[in-house]
Input
Amino acid sequence: MRRRPGLVRALGVAVGGLLAVAACGQGGGTSQPSQTLAADQTLKFAIGDDFGTLDPAQLNAESDSEVAQNVFNGLIKFDQNLNIVPDIAAKMPDISSDGLTYTFKLRQDVTFSNGDKVTSKDVVYSWNRAAAQQGPYSTNLSAIAGFDKLSTKPPPVAQIEALLAKN
Output
């Protein structure tokens, strides 16, 4: 018996296509997707590589950033439609007339995992620590006044708060 490679290949493609259509539930039926939620509402997503750190000031790779974005909150975030919206901020910032000062009001219900309230001092400390650590992404903070004056050790929070109070 002589085989016809073109016919065998065509039959293979046809059978594969039928299997794919059947597997997708598209076999001509008009069934609607289920509106019932799964009992387990845990979101699981793949990360392309092991992450190197959970320290936001030292993020060094895409996998580090992916984990950090799913573990930590910021003043603002992207919503499902990629709009910038408040996260731990109560609203979008008030911007000074010269466009150089952004004032954020924090939500009152934000706490750390141990129950302590998140305060403006915590935000200032985190920014100063990230800038002073000079991690791989620290230059993302370089547009903020004072970035270039930080050494490898941020000033005490009380000193920063006093400077902020003096404007």
In short: The chain has four helices and four strands.
